[in-house]
Fold these 4 entries.
Entry 1:
Amino acid sequence: MSHAFRFFRAGGFDQVRIDTAADLLALKELDQKLWVALSCPVKGIEFDTRTLALIDTDKDGHVRAPELLAAIDWAAARLNDPALLAQQLAGVPLAAIKDEAILAAAQGLLPAGGELVTVDAASAAEAEYSARALAAWEAAGGAVKPLGEATEAACAAVAAVREKLDDFFVRCRLAAFDTRAGDAMNASDDALKSLGAAALSAAHADIAALPLAKVPTGTQSAGAGATVPLGAGSDSGINPAWGQRIAALREAAVVPLLGARDAVSESDWLAIQDQLAGYVAWQAARPAGLPPEAEAVRDLERLARYVRDLLPLANNFVAFRDFYTRQPGAPMRATFQIGTLYLDGRSAELCVAVTDAAKHAALAGLSRICLVYCDCFRNEEKLSIAAAFTAGDSDQLMVGRNGVFYDRQGRDWNATITKLVEHPISLRQAFWSPYKRLMRMVGEQLQKIAASKAAAAEGKLAEAALGVGRKVDGPPAAAPAKPAAAQQAFDVGKFAGIFAAIGLAVGAIGTALAAMLGGLLALKWWQMPIAIAGLMLLISAPAMVLAWFKLRSRNLGPILDANGWAVNARARINIPFGTSLTQLAQLPEGAERALTDPYAEKERPWKVYIAIAVVIFVALAWWTR
């Protein structure tokens, strides 16, 4: 290589440094396997869409590596000093322009003494030239419309049958030239016989390939005297595959231009085309291309944008420098970060635009990053995003929760969670997850037991109420007392069994706790905290190890690939960097905090009671030992 590249390591891989114009110009020498991305979408990212559209020369909605390299070479060839590409100016200085046509356009835009053509000024001039050229073209169209607004339909009808009519009249002239050609110019017997075995329709390709009409074989009727019938009936003599198009030609062009007639001769056909030739030429001159001075203004706009935008685009394409080198709290600069989501006491800064959440999640889920999909609304506008949560926990992240999304322009959007892709968020969450699951399971079981007991009690109250009603309504002797006593004895036995079962469970739990406590008491006092910490770590270790492996393998690539990027590297988001992408709520430095809550629930000091009981139990155990 003629250029010595420099690299920096971030995200677990080496990325090229693009600091100077020399770095930018030498990118064509850099092996594309070392590029972080090879393609990015034109829409859905935070970058000037007009600049991306100019670079996207094939207009397929993506900027690819060859197009970026071509844009760099194009800009360098039109500057006196390519070093200007690394200065990220707001436009292009007049003294830096090398191309004479672009320089003349710039001189025409700048006021006296002006030195810099800004991107805004160049864009406004390009839009003005384009509008002016379009207005001039539209004004010229009024003189070439012989049928007014119906001229376009007449041209379309002529274009639909032009080749077939030209073919017919050439066949007629050949038949007039040599009588032996008459039969050869018409459909052969073999061609007609081959149609007999096929399932036919008026639009059949083999039928459409036959001549438009039967070619006359007489010398007088052939040649210049031949005509094409314009009838629409089945006996018109027109090939059935072309009947509707010939009828459209008659109504849209022949009758309005030549008057009513049953057939069209070759001279009539040429006259129709002559009358519409001006309109056809005017349509071909529509300013998709621009006059030379307008082309120069467009090139001026392109050059001004490239001077401003090529270096930051390369640092978000060839490398993800603007993503990996940003300091926490600093303004985000990566093109794929479209804003910040505030939700659940956190701010998530890795937010990407999404068009189809289900389709995006199918691939983005492979990133092993906890993703929250939200629909965002602002007045009549709607935006869908995927936000990565990389700090805190997921306990309160659920479909339906609301937050606020701020885009890069500072506008606020109402955001509602519509979908979750759950993955570990932090090691702290993984440590406490077994205990949270246990508490959740115990709580659910206690709720089920309480619900069943409440239902049983309500049933017994209903039975009792029903019995009282029967006693009141029925005869005195209708309800003897003995069955009620039997029922009461049955209920007592049932509840005795329930209480016995509960007693056994409590006893088992107490035995286990006593065994654990006995083991702890057998230790020295300084060994007890270590044993408790070891027990907790033993319980949490499997979840933490699994979470650690997943957190270390988090990959930005699938999230961007699901948006149309072609990420060419394993762009990892490790634990420290991931933590910086999601900010947790923190009190400002120097803030005062009152810990007394006047509305806090009045709680009994159970912790104190338990601590006293443990101390007494330990003392008694030590005394009796």
Note: The chain is about 50% helix and 10% strand.
Entry 2:
Amino acid sequence: MVKCAASRVISTFVFAAFLAATPPASAKEINFDQATIAELNAAFDAGTLTAEKLVEMCLERIKAFDREGPKLHAVITLNPDALEIARALDAERKAKGPRSPMHGIPVIMKDNFDTVDMPTTGGSVLLEGSMAPDDAFMVKKLRDGGAIILAKLNLGEFANGSQSSLGGQSLNPHDLTRTPAGSSGGTGVGIAAGYAPMGLGTDTGGSVRGPSNVNGIVGLKPTHGLVSRDGIIPLALSLDTGGPMARSVYDVAVALGVMTGVDPADPATSKSKGKFHTDYTQFLKADALKGARIGVARDFTGADPDVDWIFEASLKAMEKAGATLVDVRYPKWFLDSTFSAVFTLYPMEFKVQIADYLKTTAPKYPKTLEELIDRAYEYTSLGEDGAGPNPYRWAYFVNTEQPSGDLTDPSYLALRDYYMPMTSALIDGIITKNKLDAIVYPTGTRRPAQIAAPAARLVPGEGPSIPSPTGIANLSGFPDLIVPAGFTTDDLPVTISFFGTAFSEPKLLALGYSFEQATQAIRRPVTTPALPGGMIEVPE
């Protein structure tokens, strides 16, 4: 009798294992680097994919494209334990189920997020090999949700510009001669090239949104305080925030929900109490544009006819989906001052705040901006590993160090205590007066510049020839969602921004998702094609 019962148990187990290993009767085959996190989870649940296999496929694309093939130079450090972590998470999924929708999902991140198991360098030879004492809050939340930190990515050194002294210059996979933008350029490149389903960048004046735009992906600069800045190398904490970058609005929404929460180590997150969500996918509706009132900011058009054409086509798509469009204008005096406001605030804060961060590093590393400058002068040629001078960024160090005030300077206090609240009030007023759900604008006013072109390498104190739209979101602290919209005649991506008031992420993600579903304007870069063996089966 016992033997028969045992036989039935064994038979049941074998049958269940057979079902788990057998592809579902109705399934579609798609390339993993085109799949959403929802589709990856469906494949996990169906037994047609494991986290270990997914990591292997990501590593294959990194191997094929980062130092070989187009040589995109997006990766600074690979996690040597990624496959082992994936195997453990696969076993945990079988035993207990997934921790969150991010369970088993590989994540790549800008190398200014502290990670306890990989160096955090800020893209600088000056911090080469530096090990943080613990994970950044956003990183810890991802790990707690079961995500696999796959790699640390190249960036504009210390989150400024598009080139680093440690990782060199990343290349745009849509056109290797064009800038990938900065400073989260490595993450933008890595997501576009299919290195991982999801990535992290940081944004002080547009550093998530610029790379999302020129690499043709989705990116979000969240409301200031929605996600913690703890464990992120600072550029200017009044403006800084981390943000998710991915190939779809759904993936950005999934990742955002895992990373929110009040963090005692970051007082700014107290603003999010009672306003953050742990699941932003609940707000995604394909018909969200129907009945929406969308403000159209044409202040940022007129620089590139191809960009303007895609922007106008996007507006037509929104109208077709049922949105009402309302032209809005920012005051000229305001547009004339936003760029200089950002670049006045950040040097003053960086000088003080980078010293606070450097206190957490080992004794052998510089501890002040002055020591960073002194150490930088020791690097005058490329090393065997390709690391070397970055005069563009280091000139900013020197410029920042010059007598320009400090955090008690009246000019700084006026910007922080009056200009930034005024910006918030202005945007709130425009949106409230016109009863808008969001304001849209072309994220980049023109197509990405050639890497060697002077326009891609602004010198200190030199602003763009037309108003920069992205800094407004940082000065106000408001969220800005970037969604692919189309391509120029020379096959370069163009995106559109959905900009709203504080903690309006649910509405922006809904509108962006609706636009994305209506237009489907994303595609794989020409230099990073599908690889053999990259297909997965997903239940329909």
Note: The chain has 15 helices and 15 strands.
Entry 3:
Amino acid sequence: MNIKDIIEQKLSEVILNVYQLKDIKLEVQENKTEFEGDFTIVTFPLVKQLKKNPESIGVELGEALTEQTDIFESFNVVKGFLNVKVKNQLFVDNFRSVHNGFSTIDKKNATVMVEYSSPNTNKPLHLGHIRNNLLGFSVAQILKEAGYDVVKTQIINDRGIHICKSMLAWEKFGNGETPETTNTKGDKFVGNYYVEFDKNYKKEIAELVAQGATEEQAKKDAPIIKEAQKMLLDWENGDEMVRNLWAEMNSWVYKGFNETYKRLGVDFDQVQYESNTYILGKDLIQAGLDKGVLYQKEDGSVWCDLTDEGLDQKLLLRSDGTSVYMTQDLGTAVERFKDNNIQKLIYTVGNEQDYHFQVLFKILKKLGYEWADQLFHLSYGMVELPEGKMKSREGTVVDADDLMQEMYETAKSKAQELGKLETLSEEDKEVSYETVGLGALKYFMLKVDPKKKMLFNPAESIDFNGNTGPFIQYTYARIQSLLTKAEFGYKETADIVLNQFEKELIMQLANFKTVVAKSAETLSPALVANYVYDLVKSYNSFYQNNPILNQDDENIKQFRLNLSDLTAKTIKKSLELLGIGTVNRM
């Protein structure tokens, strides 16, 4: 429990004793003013209840808190705000409690499935996928730290017309080349043919338009799109040649994806493939018709009427009996709850799909699945670069691998410019460049609330000052250097009188578990990111204002080293929750 929680608990007890008022929660804030006191209690909610002025309530409460509890040293009242000074011993005891309980996790006995990434196999991962993967992976890490069991999953979109476009372009223009013969990463190799298809498709459309067709008609009649549509039918009918080509090209893509995931530092416990799940959900349709939840039109198509929910009517089965994405998602959700002992399912998908998930969750609820209330769409805003938006069909997407390489190169040139790694081996230097470069990328992505659209600026992200990954990693490295010089080992110390910098740092450290819990509840890694930045700022103030290695009093010196050690552990753990590594030298 942090000190603020302890104060709030004591405050409730005293309000009950003095005023016989239950369930009154007064706001307790850390005191950032020039007035004496560690915390400020806002008394105004009591004014209406007690029909007294704020000043007299502040004095009454202050006297009661100092007399009836053993944690307050003194108080003062300024314009109705009650400032309280907490006894030194409470901070010392709180530090020991936080230190001793740092590695303990209170298990929740509940399992959460987190879905993220879920790419198409017709192109490599791009900047948008980076935000998706980092968010999903970080949320999974945070949920684990908050005590949940977690299953990380993705469903790969490995079938459909877009896949056939890449396959057809390779068949027509590839001359038998492979990723190996061209020395190209597999996902990029296949993505190049997706772009190649689009170029040829546009060319054919232009030719048809020049011959007098409307653009809309030309898009339908272009020979290459008709060939792609036939290939999709052949795939659905199990044509052996088409299926073999599909399997081979997908294998190239998966190999490429896995290299990207490995460098990005994300992984999965389960992988599903749309080619296996697209037929799921059809049996649910019949059950829904039998229950009267769904209805059939004269043409045989099946719909769900959600107008009573403020939504529209949703097609679930076409008149020819083929399913749509929604049908498949219904079936996949049911299968996931059937095959896994999960209590919650979180979909990490961009906010352009908000409506889709609203509909999905409502239909599952109508079909009678109680767990539909435990489905969450972790909706996030799009990522843009200073140059603007990206388009995958036109090959103008910011490639995930290229971006990671750029971050590595930037970190390398920064480190060489600062000249701080000269004594390290080449291998250790490489680890440092990679950890710092990718740490900069990840932190910049995750410090922004997921719901917000964001502008990613690579140069700004790798600054060694301000709210950046390298700034936080540098503080961690500085503490490691300090502990090494001191030949640190944790030893219990006698009680010391703490100054304001030490108190503030202890309060920050005590907040870690509260922040993790809140971050797990809101599915926002940004809370952890901004917490660790505040912790680092607090430590740097402490470090600059308190001698440690030059401290003559051995007891104070050891306490400050203990404080530094716990700060380093908390920084490391916070960064791990964001998928970010640390280095001992920068």
Note: The longest helix spans residues 186-210.
Entry 4:
Amino acid sequence: MSDSSSFAQHINEGYSTKGDFITLGAAMLENEVIGDAHVKIPLKTLNRHGLIAGATGTGKTKTLQIIAENLSEKGIPVLLMDIKGDLSGIAAASQGHPKIDERHQKINIPFEAKNFPVEILTLSEQNGVRLRATVSEFGPVLLSRILDVTETQAGIIAILFKYCDDNQLPLLDLNDLKKVLQYSTQEGKEELEKDYGRISTSSTGAILRKIVELEQQGADLFFGERSFEVQDLCRVSDEGRGVINIVRLTDIQDRPKLFSTFMLSLLAEIYSTFPEQGDSDRPELIIFLDEAHLIFDEASSALMDQIESIVKLIRSKGVGLYFVTQNPTDIPDGVLSQLGLKVQHALRAFTAKDRKAIKLTAENYPISDYYDTKEILTALGIGEALVTALDEKGRPTPLAATMLRAPMSRMDVLTDTELKDLLKKSKLADKYNETIDRESAYELLNEKIAQAEEEEAKEAAKKEREKLNKSSRSTGRSRSSSSTTEKAIVKVLTSATFIRGALGILNKILSSKK
């Protein structure tokens, strides 16, 4: 048996599957494509998460596109984070190319140009279905971790959430949260201290500064109503294909805090609302996180713990997370160890640091009798990748250098006109693009403060009136007393006895002088 035939048998046995699957491409050996050795990924293991890595320009985004298309074909909804803005073309069919035909002839997979059902979502003021969540839905624990506050400050946030729950004060947006913080150390200080304990002004000030920092990254657009319902990510088209939801993030590349805030909120909501799936034959939803390092670069240790916990637990809900980044070392070890599918595009060794990273990357893959992993990592061409996955029994498949199939949809963005037409067809825009500003903590506390001020003003006016009345009565008594004295003096002076007495004294004086 020749090397190529034994290799083909090795790949086919390792990637054999009894259930449904998607095909990524055909395996290669010594730069030759083995057309009858297809690399197939069982749908059953796609909720075990994955990694797509490689240097800039090696084809990571196209690999993401290929997997998303094939999942949609199988009726599985997809959520894509479009940081670079080059995924909208999935809504249009491929224009075809002789090189695509040549590639598919080599890998022995028929090529068919197709467009796919797409929903455009947005976190910012860009056109698309608006994604929002309320502060209350976020909860005190996740909010504290996003804000990276101290343990004491996290306790204060928890107290304020409890106070709002107890007093029916909805926390919808960041204005609500800021108002409650201010109220807790000013007008409502005595009220909160009585029932919830003392709240430090310096701590609330620190929390407020963290919230302002989050606002400056655009979070004020994210927090509010109407809240996005994560079940709307799991829609299937009338033709039975999974809807590909694309979140346009091109204008928040320099705002990683907003991106990580949104992602953690979304994952936490999915985990809390999706039913347990157990060992299902297919995933419920697959999420691709392009430029995944944005989530991890500025994450605190508490936030990292939260991310790792969600990654470990969310697969039981039938949700797979796929991290797309340049180097596997961008992903923390605790997360990397949870990833079942790994698609590794070429890495470039320009420096000693690069060579060290390649060596570490090679150690993440199964040992192969057919490849020197360190060498092949730098020799892969565009649209080629090392692939290893999990078979239906959860075992790692053999390492396969793979020539990947081409995307069936357009490998370019939609024109402005095409994008507008797509947005007009949206089935979610009417539901989520209406801005709702109902009465919440901000308005209710302002009303409460106004009522308190009005009552204080009435009380002050009452005391002032009482003071004036008291002063008036005192003056009246003084005048009455003076008038009585005057009358008494006049009475005495005009009385007959007084006159006689006075005249008697005068007579005596006059007689003595004589």
Note: DSSP finds 20 helices and twelve strands in the chain.
